[in-house]
Amino acid sequence: MRPLYPVPCLALMSAGAAVAQDRPNVVIILVDDLGWGDVGFHGSEIPTPNIDRLAREGIEMDRFYTAPVSSPTRAGLMTGRYPHRFGIRETVLPPWREYGLDHTEMTMADLLESCGYENRAILGKWHLGHSEAKYYPLNRGFNYFYGCLNGAIDYFTHEREGELDWHRNWDSAWDEGYATDLLTREAVSYIERSKSSPFFLYLAYNAPHSPYQAPRDEIAKFIDLDTFDALKPGQQREYIYKAMITRMDTGVGEVYRALADNGLLDNTFLLFMSDNGGVPGLTGSTNRPLRGTKFEEWDGGVRVPAVIYWSKSPLQGTMCRQLSGFVDVLPTIAHIVGAGGPPRPYDGISILPVLTGTESFIDRSLYLGCGALVNTGYKFVEAGRNERLGLKEDFLVDYSADPYETTNAIDRHPETARRMKEYIVPYDTITPAFQEIPYGVGQKDFMAPKEWKITR
Length: 456
Hints:
- The chain is an alpha/beta fold and 456 residues long.
- The protein has helices spanning 17-20, 49-57, 70-79, 108-114, 179-194, 216-219, 225-229, 233-261, 299-302, 329-337, 352-355, 414-428; strands at 25-31, 59-61, 64-65, 119-125, 144-148, 159-160, 163-164, 167-168, 171-172, 199-204, 268-274, 306-309, 318-320, 324-325, 365-369, 372-375, 378-381, 395-398.
- The chain has twelve helices and 18 strands.
- The protein has a ten-stranded mixed β-sheet, with helices on both faces. Strands 15-16-17-18 form a four-stranded antiparallel β-sheet, with helices on one face.
């Protein structure tokens, strides 16, 4: 059912030539709704020693951008193309949605399969289509799947809309335990099973996304449990949120150790990133000092904690201020492994020249959707495109004078704003593969399929 893509691996005479011959393991750890200020290396009081170690030993990507919500980021990450091409831009794919990521698009797993990667796993949250087999991960280039099709599943029962959404390949998985722990255990096992040849591991934790649930032994690290039980639910949530993050951080550490213990770190390209900004409020999450939250094109919604660990880069142990983002991941990996050109042009770029030190930076623009564009020095946001922003007039950020987007600089740089507004017109006018449908449409009277089984 899955289309084949003629993407040959080439012996590139470029920055990627030497590393392409080694075919590194590719590990992507994607976490859900982790705020800019929710990690220790950005000053959080929540302990994240394992993520902090990655940032300290690897490359801290200081200006890494995503979409402001989950499914769009995942679509762009997997394809290297802007998610509004697929009708997945302003909202996620809810349980009652019938379409998914355009099945004719090449995914990262497809590309790596064409380059000889025999083992290609997705563990965790897919969130790119569940209504038909053509959207299923095993028909999108992956040959192993363990986790859930939807977002926002219960961490303990693994249910969404009252039905089990936990799978091992095509079968329901009735494994008991906390979802984060199960995914960590599976990731470590997969590394052990796959270490004899280069592999692709896409580990998509659902933490710290709602529902806000955590094991009591993890909560007890922050508060006496009797005291915790006496709190109102809103007061409890802050401790639960901290526990969700620290449990996930422990998982990141176990994956790191599995790679190290098996002698794989020196030949692994590892990316850690959040899918969008955090959701401040009763959870205690924060995007400070950035402006905005999840669902918004301000930096707090789209500039996320991100780290690359790749021992072949001379940038290891430093901060990289190259503007980059979710749609750049696949073009960069394609460059590293020596893949040929994609069947459809990428919207992202390869940042391999920066990672290898052959270029100090690449001047580029990144379309954020909803009339928003960011480049090295500025961000342009068109009024009226995202109602959450409440803009009555177009807004221009001048990062050199205003790094936290507090003041509209459009009067001082009108020509810059004009050029940026003009730049986004071709992207805004793209006809998507599917017409995007508002989140709530179809929710009334929806009945989840038994065990979220694919029946067509």
